[in-house]
Design brief:
Bound molecules: guanine
Number of strands: 11
Radius of gyration: 19 Å
Order of helices and strands: EHEHEHEHHHEHEHEEEEHEH
Structural class: alpha/beta
Distance between the termini: 45 Å
Shape: globular
Strand content: 15-25%
Strand order of the largest sheet: 1-11-8-7-5-6
Helix content: 40-55%
Largest sheet: 6 strands, parallel
Amino acid sequence: MEIIDGKKVSTQIKEEIAEEVARLVAEGKKIPHLAAVLVGNDGASETYVANKVKACQAVGIKSTELRYGSDITEEQLLEVIRQLNEDSDIDGFIVQLPLPKHISEEKVLNTIHPDKDVDGFHPCNVGKMVLGLPTYLPATPAGIMELLARYDIDTEGKHCVVVGRSNIVGTPMAVLMSRKAKHANCTVTMCHSRTSNLKEITRQADILIVAIGVPHFITKDMVREGCVVVDVGIHRIPSETTKSGWKLVGDVDFEQVSPLCSYITPVPGGVGPMTIVSLLQNTIKACKAKH
Ligand code: GUN
């Protein structure tokens, strides 16, 4: 069993990105600039946005964090987005999800200009992804594809089972893994909360990608020997063995499942750090497209 070390790979890629930004600066080109919009005070979202801003700083990308209370109206938020669309110094921006219930996620994502949609969530960019046209790939699936490529994992003709059908992870993951491309070319099965014979299907997986949002959902009886397991989940659960009283776990029961795997991503330190790297890469792409 080999651990897919997302932390190590992401550090390596961040060094490459920092070199690229330094080169842009040396050539007198525009410094890439990412804005992140955060609404309300959801603890996890605050951490994610803080990490995105910190990563920008570490590689020399300019960043702006825009925070609003959960009482912001939908129209006010849409106006913020329109202004970001118009702001020529901002190359790309994200609106951290989830949003408060009174704000339509669909309207928000539709209002972001596709050229600045570095999350790749706008319907135009999702459509381009499905068609295999150049676009911004959503950060988590792009990060996973990069991990599979950097570990040179043989995916050709293999059965990839994706557990979860979210717009952010499961759906794009299934699309990307079925593409005619190196480190893809899989036969893909997508499972979700209504799949009746889940264990039967996950046991057929050569590559199992789990983004179901339930801690320790995948147990050893659900995984075939030699499987490559990618765990997208991240949950804080109570723990008696840590000083803090809690620990981070994924959607996969790592302790049980990892001995069976050929490769597995740990939590933390697997998929998570790669997600931010993809966002940085998209921001640079957005900047270069315009300057
Ligand atoms: N919430 C969870 N993941 C993401 C992400 O990749 N982008 C945004 N904007 N919100 C998220």
